[in-house]
Design a protein that fits this description.
single chain; mainly alpha; about 70% helix; about 0% strand; disordered C terminus
Length: about 70
């Protein structure tokens, strides 16, 4: 598999992780409310970590794979 294809696969995996952790957090909040608890804190931490991984994966994505580059002003 080529390097751009690996990066695209990794980005798709990280997006899926973000979706998964967000769904778990929302479900927990629906069932138990937003009262502070250790479990809620764990789920929030997992979701925020996944979002950070997505931001890092998106930042390292080379131009041409879902990213657009604005022309530089002269």
């Amino acid at each position: 598999m080529s390097s751009p294809a690996k990066r695209a696969d990794r980005l798709a995996q990280v997006r899926a992780q973000v979706d998964y952790h967000q769904q778990r957090l929302v479900l927990y909040q629906r069932l138990h409310g937003s009262r502070p608890s250790a479990r809620l804190s764990e789920l929030e931490h997992a979701y925020l970590g996944a979002r950070e991984r997505l931001a890092g994966a998106s930042d390292s994505e080379p131009p041409g794979i879902g990213a657009s580059i604005a022309p530089r002003p002269d």
